[in-house]
Specification:
The protein contains 9 helices and 12 strands. The chain is of the alpha+beta class. A 12-stranded mixed sheet has the order 1-2-3-4-5-12-6-11-10-9-8-7, with helices on both faces. It binds coenzyme A.
Length: 315
């Protein structure tokens, strides 16, 4: 019996101009094959950013000179976020050797950092990762629920009636205020906290960004909360979805009902745009947010998991 060809590491290092097109083309092809997005928005934007002084690092593996898997790690507040894109049939386990190769490619590059913290995000539709991650020394530490709600006529009317007063974001004018509310509300949050002007700018320039979908609650002299909504086109597996992409209330104003009113404003805005399913992601241990979403009738649709690696086991 002939052995299958062994995978080999084709590249490991920071994303650079020469490899960016092949990397993005590969991710697009795998996503097209599977019929849904695999790479998160955040990592995609980080890879696309040609001007960043902190580009993501990437490891790419080939089989028979054909790209078969990539792992991409990007800096966050607390270390690095890792995602893996691999061409495989979800009904069958992916080739462990290939995933091991690309993940080790990144951990080898980053292990000299002190302390090193790598967080591997695995989507719910990729249950194989759980076994591979633990074999590579990653330990589960975070769960992210995707919650949904049907934007029926009744719910849309309820949300319209309960919504806070909001206005759309004004590009070139609201950035400073938005960043100060966001960074205060998400002070301890790994991905959403500590945003810079550059990080906000990147999203404002993204093709999906619509200033009117970023709803702000105005008060004299500023804003005290926001609800950033985002529309997702239907794909092979999913209907059109209207996401609450980020929501926050200024910490000095929490506990007074504004959070609920902002969620309602966001879903009411999406319902008015003709979207029938509302959706958002929430950390399973975000007690305040979970209580809020459940109180308006949202339900968990699926759960993504994050695994953390904090360096090689000590000898
Ligand atoms: C989550 C957040 C938006 C809630 O805003 P808020 O103005 O305090 O919320 P509200 O006062 O409108 O409360 C809404 C519901 O959530 C519940 N709730 C709010 N804070 C809670 C807490 N700390 N513990 C338990 N329940 C809580 C309330 O019981 C309330 O339900 P009720 O109206 O049936 O009594 C706010 O805490 C925040 O900005 N947090 C940081 C950013 C964040 O985590 N965003 C969500 C990311 S998914």
């Amino acid at each position: 019996m002939t052995q299958p060809p062994a995978p080999s590491l084709a590249f490991a290092g920071p994303v650079e101009a020469e490899i960016r097109p092949a990397l993005l083309h590969f991710c697009d092809e795998v996503e097209r094959h599977h019929g849904h997005r695999i790479l998160s928005d955040q990592l995609r934007l980080d890879v696309l950013d040609e001007t960043s002084s902190h580009p993501p690092v990437v490891a790419m593996a080939e089989v028979d000179s054909v790209l078969a898997a990539v792992s991409i790690a990007s800096r966050t507040n607390e270390g690095w976020t890792l995602e893996v894109v691999c061409q495989h049939d979800h009904a069958l386990a992916p080739a462990r050797d290939i995933i091991r190769l690309v993940v080790n490619g990144v951990t080898d590059l980053l292990q000299r950092e002190n302390p090193v913290r790598i967080t591997w995000w695995a989507r719910a539709h990729d249950p194989w990762v759980e076994h591979i991650a633990s074999a590579l020394g990653f330990v589960e530490y975070r769960r992210l629920h995707q919650m949904r709600i049907s934007l029926t006529i009744e719910n849309a009317a309820r949300f319209h009636d309960g919504a806070a007063e909001t206005r759309g974001f004004i590009v070139g004018s609201d950035e400073h205020e938005w960043l100060s509310v966001n960074n205060a509300a998400f002070a301890d949050h790994e991905e959403q906290g500590g945003w810079t002007h550059e990080q906000l700018e990147r999203r404002v320039r993204a093709p999906w960004f619509l200033a009117d979908d970023l709803r702000l609650h105005p008060v004299s002299g500023g804003i005290t909360g926001f609800c950033w909504t985002k529309r997702h086109e239907p794909d092979l597996h999913e209907p059109e979805l209207g996401e609450i992409y980020a929501i926050a209330v200024d910490p000095s104003q929490v506990g007074q009902g504004l959070g609920k009113q902002m969620v309602m404003a966001g879903f009411s805005h999406l319902a008015r745009a003709g979207i029938f399913i509302g959706m958002l992601y929430v950390d399973a241990d975000n007690t305040a947010a979970m209580a809020l979403y459940e109180s308006i009738g949202m339900e968990v649709h699926h759960t993504d998991r994050a695994y953390r690696w904090s360096g090689p086991p000590s000898a």
